[in-house]
Amino acid sequence: MFRVPTLIASAAASVLLLGATAANAQPAGAFYAAKPVAAAGATRLVVRDTMWTCAESGCVSGSKGTSRAAFVCESLVKQVGQVESFRAGTEEFGAEALAKCNAKA
Hints:
The chain is an alpha+beta fold. It has helices at about 5-25, 70-80, 95-100; strands at about 30-35, 45, 50-55, 60, 85-90, 90.
């Protein structure tokens, strides 16, 4: 008798939790992720010691470079132009870091 409401509540909680996780999920295997303002011309490019794959949704790289994240961002914008967002691991660049990075474009 009480199983159906409990089951519905359980399912609803699962959907909410999975939705929140999916929104924050990183692309599979991507350490760096960037969203160029304009679409990148190349689908694959090597910037310094990092291999990038670009699509309409942005550019990602699975390997962590040997340079600091700020240098990786600056090197990328020299190739693809300014970026709307940049993430290294779990660190999302804020407005100030993005402005500094985009100044190198």
